[in-house]
Amino acid sequence: MEMKRLLHFVHIAALLLLTMSPLEAAGGKKEKRKRRRENNVHHDPPAVNSTSWFLGKLLRNYDKLRPPMQDKSTRVELGIYINSFYSISEQTMDFSVNIYLRQNWTDPRLAFDPQEGGRDMIKLEDGYWDRLWVPDVFFRNEKKANYHDVTIPNRLMRLYSNGQIWYVTKISATLSCPMDLKKYPLDVQHCPMMLESFGYTMDVLYFVWMKNAVDMDDHVSLPQYKLQGHQLEDCSQNYTAGAFPCLKVTFNLKRDIGYYMIQVYVPTALIVILSWVAFWISIDSSPARVSLGLLTVLTMTTQSASARASLPRVSYIKALDVWMSVCLVFVFASLLEYAAVNVFSRREIPKPSKASSLMEKFKGPSDKSLRSLTEVENGVNGRKQPPQYIRDPFGREKARMVDKLSRKLFPTTFILFCLIYWPVYIFIDM
């Protein structure tokens, strides 16, 4: 009986083992298929329209140290967009600008099929900028310059299907501007911006201005200047290492005279006119006339020093120097005029003696009578009296005549100077 039960149990166990084996095999196959799918997800090639994968493939064998063209010189088009002009300084002879520097060239190694790339143009992000060949443009007359990185690097690079690259960078630069101040402040300054290749000679690349090479924001304004235009030139230069490409744009900046009229010309002209008031003050009012003369001279000297404080020390004469010097001469001359008037008004002549009067009254006296008269005049003991002086009755009249002449001569001369000064410095090119 027990033997039968044991056999029955073994039979049931065998049936269970036979039933579970196919299920485990099926489960194992499912697990293998799942793992295979996961592996396929990680190792299948990415989609064709993935920009990163496509650029990685395009740049796989790219050499950024080699220029695009090997058999000929690479053409690079340059242009600038001016955001602002600021800090034009005569003292340091420089000017500062904020610009977008635009560069355009073609690299045949980067040409691609638009269908493969999924588009005709690809915008390159930050990581790819340093993997491409870029022209080594720098500012030849730069004093200092910097890129902008707030809030992201202010650079834009686009790649087109024909291999053309459009590259724009935002730059703030301080550039030297040799100024000719002979006509200051009635001058026009010509400030250059020179773009040159630092390491490539003209047999490797050359620069040309693109169409509408210089553009400007409509709201750009200068506090003391007016931008009259610009000229585009080629400034390529031969060095010992070879001929390097260079382009130059020259900005014509005309100084606005309004500030200087208010701060310099009108005040100094009024000081000169004020000095002429002394010609109408009485000759006897010495304190008033001397004080007015000294005050105008000192004020003119202070004004002249203040106007020249912001200018460099140059060896030639400026238009402002001529104006200030002439005004100072007029003011000083009015002070000297009173000195001359004072001399005339206080001039003294010897007082005529009694003997002289008698001699004039009686013509032809004898020598004896003359000696008698002289002895009476000189005293009993024969001692001579010191000569006596009286004011010249015609001296005050001469002083008044000098004042009257000065009232006409000084204004006329100053007006004549103005009629010569302004046309010469405004219309004549020096």
Average pLDDT metric: 83
CATH level-3 fold name of the largest domain: Acetylcholine Binding Protein, Chain: A
Percentage of β-strand residues: 25-35%
Q: So what's the CATH class of the largest domain?
A: Mainly Beta
Our Rg estimate from Cα atoms comes to 49 Å
H/E element order: HHEEHEHEEEEEEEEEEHHHEHHEH
So what's the overall shape? rod-shaped
Tally of extended strands? 15
N- and C-termini, Cα separation? 138 Å
The largest pleated sheet is described as: 7 strands, mixed
How much helix, percentage-wise, in residues? Answer: 40-55%
Number of domains: 3
Describe the protein.
It is found in: Cell membrane; Membrane. The chain crosses the membrane at residues 257-280, 292-311, 323-344, 409-428. GO terms for molecular function: extracellular ligand-gated monoatomic ion channel activity; transmembrane signaling receptor activity. Keywords: Cell membrane, Ion channel, Ion transport, Membrane, Receptor, Signal, Transmembrane, Transmembrane helix, Transport. The longest helix is centred in the N-terminal third of the chain and has 42 residues, at 2-43. With 430 residues, the chain is α+β, with helices and mostly antiparallel strands. The protein has helices spanning 2-43, 51-58, 114-117, 126-129, 258-275, 286-308, 319-345, 354-361, 367-378, 395-427, and strands at 74-89, 94-106, 121-124, 137-139, 142-147, 155-160, 164-176, 188-197, 205-216, 225-234, 237-239, 242-244, 246-255, 348-350, 389-391. It contains 10 helices and 15 strands. Strands 1, 2, 3, 5, 6, 7 and 9 form a 7-stranded mixed beta sheet that branches. A 4-stranded antiparallel beta sheet has the order 4-8-13-10, with no helix packed on it. Strands 11-12 form a two-stranded antiparallel sheet. A hairpin with a 3-residue loop joins strand 6 (155-160) and strand 7 (164-176). Mean pLDDT is 83; it is low at 40-49, 365-371 and 373-377. It is rod-shaped. It has 3 domains: 55-256, Distorted Sandwich (Acetylcholine Binding Protein, Chain: A), CATH 2.70.170.10; 259-348 and 391-427, Neurotransmitter-gated ion-channel transmembrane domain (Methane Monooxygenase Hydroxylase, Chain G, domain 1, Up-down Bundle), CATH 1.20.58.390; 352-386, no CATH class. Helix content is 42%, strand content 27%.
